[in-house]
Amino acid sequence: MLNMAEGVVRLGALAASPVVATLADAFARAGHDLAIVGGPVRDALLGRETNDLDFTTDALPDAILRIVKPVSTAQWDIGRAFGTIGAKVAGEQVEITTYRADSYDGVTRKPTVEFGDTLEGDLVRRDFTVNSMALRVPSSTLLDPTGGIEDLVAQRLRTPADPAVSFGDDPLRMLRAARFAAQLGFDVDASTIAAMAALRATLSIVSPERIQGELVRLLQTDDPVRGIRLLVETGLMEEFLPEIPALRLEVDEHHHHKDVYEHSLTVLRQAIELEQARNPDASPDVALRLAALLHDIGKPATRKLERGGGVTFYHHDTKGARLARKRLQQLRFDSDTITVVSRLIELHLRFFGYAEGAWTDSAVRRYVRDAGAGLERLHILTRADVTTRNAKKAGRLARAYDDIERRIAELSAQEELEAMRPELDGNRIQEVLGIPPGRDVGEAYRFLLDLRLDEGMIGEDEAERRLRAWWGARG
Fold first, then answer.
1. 92-96, long-range: CB within 8 Å, 24+ apart, which pairs?
2. Can you give the pLDDT at residue 51?
3. Does the keyword Flavoprotein feature in the UniProt annotation (predicted)?
4. What is residue 52's three-state secondary structure?
5. CATH code, 155-240
6. Is 152 within 8 Å of 143 (Cβ atoms)?
């Protein structure tokens, strides 16, 4: 709940910080206005941590650069065409933008950049009222022309202008609504939701890279489920990640299975809780969170209704991995993220075989080898995938996973399991068998790797003997 008295104190502290005081003095001496704008003001009022500082001014870009050079250690003007100059002041990175009064062509979402004359005019063109407040410095005067404070108190997300106009100007703002709803824990007002649903198709003019960026920022919040629900309910998710709404499978009175959509959201929440518990100081693990959200997207395509009321989803793990890879490529995710996510989805069912009967050491080694660098993520995803309300079953699965992690740790200590390699490398294989580089060396390497996985370390001499015997048996 917003406490205005405390919020005012925090705004005062923000205005008095070294970086703000330095810039405020420099712009005032140059005869120009300066104000902190957007997120930093909102977060200070809410008592949230303030990270990047954004400023706006009546000064044009050339003047901004001229003013900040004497008080900064670095400057960059990559955003000069949009009126933005970046600088490093008092050890902090800041961006300062000339008042804007953009117009949009409705085709490319790229604005026609027009510089404005007033701070009020700049604020009313922004995305949401809670981001449309500014703190003039050095006077520490709060400006709120669109009712942002009232919306902070009401925990409501609303556009400053008619939402149809705002989203028509820039459809990406609809995805930002979902992100801010999750980040702030706010509800989106009814007219804004209606506009999102009505204008969902306009998202087609937004580049995949920008959509991906907003999806990542949503997943980086502590509870992205609120935003995901909003995207699904308005139909926006259908436009760029249709596999998620497709999880809402119909359930008839004769064939019963858990709600896959709700299950996936629960898995995502549980994965985040485990991630934060195991790695409390780490940045949000987007690849893990994507895998948790997408882990069952192969189910709609593999669902089979059986006689007697059963439902099966055979091979939904491998199908889901392929679907995820294709969709993440379309959203321009990097190759490492795509590989990690698709591999986690492919492996997410592997553990349940362990729960049904203890594995041999060989099976545990293969589990570790197949998971590779994603083993810790696989631990989290597999544990999070248990959403049963049957306490007895949940306890049994938790104990089984405790056991497999214990065995992995023991085998790792004994055999350096993470560095799983045959005891003879490719060069030694060629020497022992007297063969040149080629496919035969690769097959010999795989034979030795399987041997290592099945029996552990057997020593180089024994490995050579087995290799010669295998080679001789090949004729």
1. 92/19, 92/53, 93/52, 94/19, 94/23, 94/52, 94/53, 94/54, 94/55, 95/52, 95/53, 95/54, 95/55, 96/23, 96/34, 96/55, 96/56, 96/57, 96/64, 96/68
2. 76
3. no
4. coil
5. 1.10.110.30
6. no
* N-terminal to C-terminal alpha carbon distance within the chain: 78
Mean pLDDT of the chain: 90
Reply yes or no on domain 244-419 having CATH 1.10.3210.
yes
Tell me the pLDDT tens digit for each residue of 137-164: 999 999 999 999 999 999 999 999 999 9
- How confident is the model at residue 414, as a pLDDT? 67
State yes or no: pLDDT of 293 exceeds 90. Answer: yes
Measure the CA–CA gap between 143 and 358, rounded to whole angstroms: 65
> What CATH homologous superfamily does 1-153 map to?
Beta Polymerase, domain 2 (3.30.460.10)
% pLDDT > 90, the chain: 68
Q: Do residues 2 and 46 touch, judged by C-beta distance below 8 A?
A: yes
Gap between the Cα atoms of 289 and 95, Å rounded: 30
- Residue 410 has a pLDDT of 83
Cβ(54)–Cβ(40) below 8 Å: yes
Q: Is the pLDDT of residue 110 over 70?
A: no
- Enclosing H/E stretch for 337: helix 335-347
CA distance 454 to 469: 17
CB 394 within 8 A of CB 400: no
**Per-residue DSSP letters for 107-118?**
SS--EE--B-S-
Cβ within 8 Å of residue 416, ≥6 positions away: none
Beta strands per DSSP E along 77-199: 84-89, 92-98, 103-104, 111-112, 134-136, 141-143, 156-157, 187-188
Q: How far apart are CA 163 and CA 196, in angstroms?
A: 8
Residue 418 in this model has a pLDDT that exceeds 60: no
- 256-290 burial code (b ≥16 CB/10 A, e <16): ebeebbebbbbbbbbbbebbeeeeeeeebbbbbbb
Residues 35-80 pLDDT 10s: 999 999 999 999 988 878 999 999 999 999 999 999 999 999 888 8
Task: Look up residue 461 and give its two tokens.
Answer: 């001499």
Location of structure tokens 């399987």? 450
Q: Hey, what are 172's tokens?
A: 């990406």
Region 410-415 average pLDDT = 73
Domain boundaries, the chain: 1-153, 155-240, 244-419, 426-473
